[in-house]
């Protein structure tokens, strides 16, 4: 054994990514010859590997003592040329780890670009040298003259500390408000940075183009960067470095960007703040909007949440303060009901399917409306949230169904390549020629997917002639199946924008955000499913999705006026009087949200209560539930802190109980006190670890705090 001449003398706490729930704990001790400030990125030995780590603030008690006779291992090296991650960033990571019940190291390392882990010192130095220098300012794209509603919102955001809920219809000019506030923040301080979060990768290029047009002339091309999982490793690293070094003044990204290192953070915008995709569903299950609010508060940055259909959490927080309800009245709500540039919001037409001939995806009145629009050369958008041709194949002779062999779900029939595909585990097989069970040749698809709608519309509109040119009507489809290849979505959207498509069939992928100029009719052909979901958020989600979809119609007021055809949103339903549709018809989010909130208050559900899920995956359902039951009993026996205020529901199987041969169960925890729930979970973790060892069939367990799907 080699003994160094001068042994390293500084003991450091280092955050490294140990496996989730590892017994190693949060931070590991290493020795270093030189003192290193917290936030320094280092490489350290871990087992037989060398991994990336972050020097962490020494715990108040000096950390866990090393066992007698064990010398700390020495760090392997420092990532030269990188400023340490600052204290606000470390506080954010620390908070997220504690709140979502994960280790600091796991959250810290997941928040860094993956390439940082892989690059050698020389490669990194080269990357740092290549980071672009800011170019000289030129003239900015002219700002629009704000409408009175916009001007009011801008002034309020200027004046108050926030957080702000910008409640504006689609096309009300929310983005212009964001851009104005960003401009003010950046102009006020040469080091200021703004973070703009959007829910989906698909929506970043459009917004980026707008942000770039406004700010690149002022601050240079390098001042605007994106951060999302669709980027390559080197692209992500470049953006991350630019943000970390302060060269990037505006960072645009999906939920992961909430963890970007932004030393000058002055403003955070969370666009479409209600969108479920802000919740991470793997690893640390954080909610980017909630972390953005925490980060803004902690770092003194203004936070603007924007939506046409705010989450009930944000809606409640921005409702007038009521005595005895500390959660109301915390945000400032700014309303922008009018649409700018676009015309009126589309009229909502409800088709009562009970009054229509059976068996057709398109009711006669809807088909007539689509035909008429197409003949005039206008575009229609038909939505169905289910891809494939049919959700299941069925044999009427013996009752066989195309069940997935590995999941408690059907395999979906995809006609174009004659396959049966499981949308949960991916298992794919050829469509059988005859019933595998009885040999019957007549097996039939049940139900409809987008592929079938596309085919049916194609034949229904076969003889329809478009516009004065007199060409045949064209139907196209955009969903996850048509857009697998890189660049496919952009290409297909370009066809729509170029007017080469008359009717676009798609899933919710095309319902959000896209700026279609010539669509005047949007139809949801089968939206009822969500009305009867067991998830209490389903009505809220459905309303938000349908209103978003409606927002794709009539976006160009000039076009609508020239055509003389007011935009319409069609809903085919078996429940025409359902409150969701009644409110949608009036475009009335406020009364719908207030009614939903009253129901939730009565039932003691979020946002009037706090929830967490504990999930268990095992080889059998008994093993999964057995673990949860035992963990629950252990908690009772230990009398955990906060326990008297936390209600534990019995374990239940997940809606899709088995996926890829793994049985899944979950247990819901609910409390009127967020603090009590947090204390309980923290104290429960060690018991869950201990319990795990006693359950052989258990694959894994996890905690989901503030779950977004129950
Ligand atoms: P939102 O983000 O609420 O959907 P946008 O900011 O995208 O709305 O605005 C919708 C359209 O109206 C855009 O084409 C935008 O350029 C235009 N617009 C927004 N504000 C104004 C304004 N004050 N004057 C003229 N056009 C505006
Ligand atoms: Zn059969
Ligand atoms: Zn499957």
Automatic annotation (TrEMBL):
GO CC annotations?
primosome complex
Q: What is the lineage of its organism?
A: Bacteria, Pseudomonadati, Pseudomonadota, Betaproteobacteria, Burkholderiales
Tell me where the signal peptide lies. none
Give one GO molecular function term. ATP binding
Q: Name one GO biological process term.
A: DNA replication, synthesis of primer
Which stretches make up the Helicase ATP-binding domain?
Answer: 155-328
**Organism of derivation:** Melaminivora alkalimesophila
Tell me the protein family, please.
Answer: Belongs to the helicase family. PriA subfamily.
Instruction: Supply the InterPro entries for this chain.
Output: DEAD/DEAH_box_helicase_dom, Helicase_ATP-bd, Helicase_C-like, P-loop_NTPase, PriA, PriA_3primeBD, PriA_3primeBD_sf, PriA_C
Q: Which gene encodes it?
A: priA
Q: What is this protein called?
A: Replication restart protein PriA
